[in-house]
Amino acid sequence: MRTQVAIIGGGPAGLLLAHILDRHGIDSVVLERQTRAYVLKRIRAGVLEAGTVELLREVGLGERLNREGHSHDGSAIAWAGRERFFIDTKKYTGKSMMAYGQTAITEDLYAARDAAGGQIVDEAADVQLHDLTSDRPCVTFDKDGASRRIDCDYVAGCDGFHGVSRQSTPDSMLRTFDKGYPFGWLGIMSETPPFPDLCYCYHQRGFALASMRSPMLSRYYIQCDLDTRLEDWPDERFWEEFKARCPQKMADAIVTGPSIEKSLAPLRSFVAEPMRYGRLFLAGDAAHIVPPTGAKGLNLAVSDVFYLSRALADVYRRGDPRHLDGYSDMALRRVWGAVRLSWWLTNLLHRFPGDTAFDQRMKESQLDYLASSEHAQASLAEQYVGIPFEE
């Protein structure tokens, strides 16, 4: 096989990159290790920055998003048994965010690639990248018991943290930054009307978050120990614990119901530098992981794809390598900003093992300042809604 860009990974990053490249007349082939059904069952993020929403609309993916997405103008924080206060991102930035699940985005992208006749190879096994520092890289993989090869100009590594792409960069050429957190999130999804605001709760019992996916699809999380087992958390226990971490008025307003999905996720901050090795370019979770506290993971993948697709289009249309040569530095500036925000919110809103009474008071003092200072709220709103893409 021959293509211009071989894309490793058929999640949102890889599919969005293929979709945008196609709109620029650039050929690609997407290789995905799992089946399409498996990819579509993955439950992931659902809060989109203003820039992400704008980009999806610009590339023809806005119809369902406009119809089913839930626009929201900020987030609330509650702590120490007080009623929540609201950080109005629309007031401070003029921009709105949107709740629209990653599964829906993936469905939209599959539909767009199918309509355009895009090449997506599911169940591609033993993917290997070759000759990445030459001008003729290639990718080999196994499919249906046969070995296959794709010759290409560039390789885009969109295959997540455990994928082969980042591992194809020599250790001597890669610097990684890693921080694990001593807790995780236990989350459930229920077909119930969501709480009106996306609301973070800081409580002595631990963190809690009320989020949403659609008018009849709710997502709730609680902080949990890393050794937590799903079988120890029936729905009744989860709802009881979640409500115990909320202000009473909020707890009374929560509509409970049977869970349709339940998951455990450890929290981690990770960055790999650089995001380029020869003709290989990393995007999304292949290059960076953030705690979900800041709702940045999917949005960072989209910004990577924006920068990379623009850079490749410049090379193919005008022979201009400026954005391609600057891709890693430009993407990483945005990555580190999101990593810092996610780290800060995670530290502020969670109870850490060993937290003292002093530590707790310091966090409450920070929250008091945030609630009372419009300057502090404006700073958080600017970062939360998403810094504009660089030119």
Describe the structure.
There is one protein chain. The chain is of the alpha+beta class and 391 residues long. The protein folds into two domains: 5-73 and 98-178 and 268-349, 3-Layer(bba) Sandwich (FAD/NAD(P)-binding domain); 181-267 and 352-385, 2-Layer Sandwich (D-Amino Acid Oxidase, Chain A, domain 2). The protein is 38% helix and 28% strand. It has 14 helices and 20 strands. It has an eight-stranded mixed sheet, sandwiched between helices. Strands 8-2-1-12-19-18 form a six-stranded mixed sheet. A three-stranded antiparallel sheet has the order 3-7-4. A hairpin with a 2-residue loop joins strand 15 and strand 16. Helix 1 (12-23) runs parallel beside helix 10. The protein is globular. The relative contact order is 0.17. The mean pLDDT is 94.
Structural key phrases:
391 residues, alpha+beta, FAD/NAD(P)-binding domain, D-Amino Acid Oxidase, Chain A, domain 2, 14 helices
